[in-house]
Amino acid sequence: MRLFNSRNYRLWAAADLVSVTGTWMKVLGVNWFVLQATGSTTSMGLALMLQTLPILLFGPLGGALADRLPVRRVLLVTQAAHAVLSAGFAAVVLFGGHLSWLYLLAFLTGLVSAADGPALGRFGGMVSGPALLSQALANGSLISSTGRIIGMSLGGVVAATAGPAVLFLANAVSFAAVIAALLAMRTSSLHQLAAAAPAERGAVRAGFRYLATQPTVLVVLGVAFVLGSIGRNYQVTMAAMSFGPLSGGPAGYGVLSTVFAAGTVLGAIVVGRFRELRLQLLVGAGVVASVLQMVAGAAPGLWSFAAVLVPIAAAAVIVDTTVSTRVQLDTREDMRGRVLAAAAVVSALGGMVGAPVLGALCEAIGPRETLVVAGAIGVLACSAGAVLLLRRSAEVPVLAE
Q1: What is the CATH number of domain 1-189?
Q2: Which of 350, 389, 396, 358 is nearest to 374 (CA)?
Q3: Are 28 and 151 in contact (CB under 8 A)?
Q4: pLDDT per residue over 229-240, tens digit each?
Q5: How far is 203 from 36, CA to CA, in rounded Å?
Q6: d(CA 45, CA 51)
Q7: If 0-12 CB within 10 Å is exposed, 13-18 middle and 19+ buried, where does residue 134 land?
Q8: Would you kindly state where each structural domain of the chain is located, as residue ranges?
Q9: How many of the other CB atoms lie within 10 Å of CB of 310?
Q10: Which candidate, 376, 382, 386, places its Cα nearest to that of 296?
Q11: Are 313 and 256 in contact (CB under 8 A)?
């Protein structure tokens, strides 16, 4: 694979795997600690919301900073900040700090992520270059899925034997791998993007004005929002099915989560085989995931439901990777940070909106019916997106790449 001929990419991929593994260990650690301290899933959800909220509030500003500042330096600062905050989580556990300290740290983590996310995306493009960006994002999906499986599996053992503080410390150390990779890279081999945006007032507004002139990107983000909220909040529907009609309980939910993670690995492998990730692939994978979601609603037992989850998870990864690729390749390089920030806001908003809506639907009409309704909405959204994109096919060359 051409990407791995690059020393910079090998360093970046290795650091990414270590960092993602540490991040999922930390996610498990937060959930474990909050549930032990409160016994409340609502409190656990609050911690998650506090990490997401800053991305909604300050993500566009983070994108503007990523377009303006040298991203390698930004990442050195943000990765160090993440390491300090993760060590702070460990201190709260070890020294018996009040839960409010953990909530504060969760919010600060989200604040750093608001600047960190767009910078990571922009720097990833510098490591791979535009010709290999699709391949790099596909590899990134595989790394994320693998890191999630390793982090959750290893984290469960560590949490049970040594406690959540060790998970937070391991996450803090994982950021050192990214910092070391950044320092070890050959800057002369990085692919330089378009000149960074000059310092100016209204850089965030300029980003929104630019997006308003990119109807294709807006359609892609709109489809991604629907699929990511109503169509694809699987953690909610998997839990509702396992604890409801499938009678799987906690053990069944664990099986479904593991199967879903395995499906994301399969999806990352499949998407890596495409030379180009076109808009048609986004629509097609979205329709497949949505139709299969409707089929899952009729699954008679736990294992039949799990079997349908595998291609659903694979299609979800194809959708996410194609969205990430298109919003970068189909927009100006000097606006890339702000576009990536907008995509992150859409993703975060989809999670925050979709989870409670799906939860309410599961309670009101039942988990099976919710899956059917959500799948139907996904099909409609993809169909509407396809119609809008076809109307622009004469104006948007990317559809015929």
Answers
A1: 1.20.1250.20
A2: 358
A3: yes
A4: 887 677 778 878
A5: 44
A6: 10
A7: buried
A8: 1-189, 203-401
A9: 18
A10: 376
A11: no
pLDDT at position 114: 92
| pLDDT over threshold 60, residue 394 | no
**Structure confidence at residue 397 (pLDDT):** 46
**Taking the model in full, what pTM does it have?**
0.80
Q: Which of 212, 213, 209, 234 is nearest to 319 (CA)?
A: 234
CATH fold, domain 203-401, is Growth Hormone; Chain: A; (1.20.1250)
> 146: number of CA atoms within 13 Å, CB side?
14
- Give me 118's structure tokens: 């767009």
* Dist CA 42 CA 103 (whole Å): 13
Nearest in space to 316 (alpha carbons), one of 148, 70, 82, 111: 148
CA neighbours closer than 13 Å in the CB half-sphere of residue 356: 7
Contacts of 254 (CB under 8 A, 6+ apart): none
Condensed to tens digits (0 to 9), the pLDDT of residues 323-351 reads 988 888 888 888 888 888 888 888 888 87
Give tens-digit pLDDT for 76-126: 999 999 999 999 999 999 998 888 999 999 999 999 999 999 999 889 889
